[in-house]
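We now fix the convention by which a protein and its fold are recorded. Here is one such record, which you should read through line by line:

>
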Amino acid sequence: MRSLTALALVLTAAPALAAPPSVMTDIPAVHALTAAVMGDLGTPDILLDKGADPHHFQLRPSQARALSEADLVLWIGPRLTPWLERAIAGVGLSGESVALLDLPGTFRRDFGDKGGHDHDHGHDHGHDHAHEAAETHDHTGLDPHAWLDPENGRVWTRAIADRLAALDPDNAATYAANAEATLAAIDAAEAETRDLLAPVGDAPIMVFHDAYGYFADHFGITVAGSIALGDAASPGAGRLADLRDQLREGGIACIFPEAQHDPAHVTAIVEGTDTRIGGLLDPSGSTMEFGPGLYPALLTGLARTIADCVAGAGG
């Protein structure tokens, strides 16, 4: 696969001249980008266990200690993981904390935005991030699932390399070279994702929760709705009935279950409709093999799962 071939260049890092920084990350996508930039110089830690839900997580004491000792913490930001904001404040972090969602150049969208994907980097929509972090995940305001736009993956890769080089200047050239290989892998994965999704066209799909806005906007797919109204919300009987009626009206090609969410809800609303049930979507990569190859594989994997179902539905 082109993306993995390009990413293999990361493993050619030059011998370390000094001990690399200790780095802590939050979700698999951020861990993957960081691991790719660090290459053979070191391995970042990750707080989320395999299969864990980033929206709801409880730190173990050993993780809290590791967090407090990190030279650099790379995370999406409090809108996704308010528990991590509290942990960073509580452990007395001695190193640097970087919320990627707040970095200049990051494309940000609000929940409910439709199209208009112009990559107006650096705008903040007037968001009060501290206020939003205190809210429950009700899917209003800033959408934090920004890693699903590969342009943000590129912005963050460069920023990660810059932060590592500032902490470890002896290895700056290696971080820069690894970042270039990572960017090439993202480019290849983006091209492959577009190819996979080309046959999908504008066929409407339904997802479990509203985590795919960046992906849908960037690649031009149509997400007609979600089962859950928020990350913390379990759909009630009334909402499931309304969704079943929507599917019975026709037009929704596929509906997709999601990692960390009960697939029974999908089965319940699809009964008696023509909508196909697709494969499991995992927007954070929590069930995938952690490591530098995860980010390109996450993009292409989502595309392949969506395309396979829509093709089977005759879309």
Notes: The first helix runs from residue 2 to 7. The chain has two domains: 2-194, 197-312. The two ends are 26 Å apart (CA to CA). The domain at 197-312 is CATH 3.40.50.1980 (Rossmann fold).
